[in-house]
């Protein structure tokens, strides 16, 4: 376990768990939590033992968004608030290792943004979990997180979510909002079981191949990291780059060999080498 203040970072069985840890404030994102989230995801990426990351919250809430009291009370002319927020959300969204959102409680505002930054999103139907973008009620706009929500929900549903400030239950999100959740489970016990099931699946896959998949989907889906555009990263060129590297990949050669031999691959040798940054 590493020393943080506003989050808890722990690694067990090749999985890093990042827990938002301001339960007395509904796990609202303080400037310190923002910086610690970036640091924690950088730590997970740099650790060759870590295969996937689980993001969750302490207490009753997953995350209630930005802590407006703290955000407004610590003006820093050297910090661009948009850039700082983008770096935090991008650290989650573009982590080269798979990220699972274990939504243990309500997600509001930026908390919804964090959910949409995850690759796998799991939530229980029976524990009062809901999702809400309440910014317009306060004269605010969910500007930064729109970058992560609109591509997955689509323009019409995104407008509905952002304009009405309505609560979306887990059942509604799963049954009537395509692109919102991976799975809605019965309760918290089932939530932990689902997290364990997905981490088991992810740990059985080739690490660099998964990183390339994430990068390729980001390019094809228009969800590139801040600072990159379709002009600087051509979608077809990205396909060619990944395919060419795959043909020369030791991972692919090993994986195909194990498939032909009817054995389940053991990717531990590839994991301990670390995960280079995907270049498309």
Automatic annotation (TrEMBL):
UniProt cross-references to InterPro entries, sorted A to Z: ClpP/crotonase-like_dom_sf (IPR029045), Enoyl-CoA_hydra/iso (IPR001753), Enoyl-CoA_hydra_C (IPR014748), Enoyl-CoA_Hydratase/Isomerase (IPR051683)
Transmembrane segments: none
GO MF, one annotated term: isomerase activity
Pfam families named among the record's database cross-references: ECH_1
UniProt KW keywords: Isomerase
Gene3D superfamilies: 2-enoyl-CoA Hydratase, Chain A, domain 1, Lyase 2-enoyl-coa Hydratase, Chain A, domain 2
Top-rank taxon, per record: Eukaryota
Family: Belongs to the enoyl-CoA hydratase/isomerase family.
The protein, known as: Enoyl-CoA hydratase/isomerase family protein
Species this chain originates from: Thamnocephalis sphaerospora
């Amino acid at each position: 376990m590493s020393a943080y203040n506003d989050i808890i970072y722990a690694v067990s069985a090749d999985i890093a768990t990042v827990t938002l840890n301001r339960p007395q404030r509904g796990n609202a994102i303080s400037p310190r939590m923002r910086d610690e989230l970036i640091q924690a995801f950088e730590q997970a990426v740099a650790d060759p033992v870590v295969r996937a990351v689980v993001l969750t919250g302490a207490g009753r809430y997953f995350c209630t968004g930005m802590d407006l009291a703290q955000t407004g009370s610590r003006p820093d002319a050297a910090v661009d608030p948009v850039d700082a927020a983008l770096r935090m959300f991008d650290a989650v969204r573009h982590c080269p290792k798979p990220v699972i959102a274990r939504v243990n409680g309500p997600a509001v505002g930026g908390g919804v943004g964090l959910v949409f930054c995850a690759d796998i999103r799991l939530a229980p139907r029976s524990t009062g979990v809901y999702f809400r973008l309440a910014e317009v009620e306060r004269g605010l706009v969910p500007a930064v997180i729109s970058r992560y929500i609109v591509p997955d929900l689509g323009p019409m549903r995104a407008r509905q979510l952002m304009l009405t400030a309505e609560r979306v239950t887990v059942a509604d999100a799963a049954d009537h909002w395509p692109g919102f959740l991976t799975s809605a489970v019965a309760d918290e016990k089932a939530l932990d079981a689902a997290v364990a099931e997905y981490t088991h699946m992810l740990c059985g896959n080739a690490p660099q191949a998964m990183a390339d998949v994430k990068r390729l989907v980001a390019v094809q889906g228009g969800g590139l990291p801040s600072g990159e555009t379709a002009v600087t990263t051509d979608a077809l060129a990205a396909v060619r780059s990944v395919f060419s590297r795959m043909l020369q990949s030791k991972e692919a050669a090993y994986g195909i060999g194990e498939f032909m031999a009817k054995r389940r691959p053991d990717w531990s040798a590839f994991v301990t080498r670390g995960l280079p940054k995907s270049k498309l």
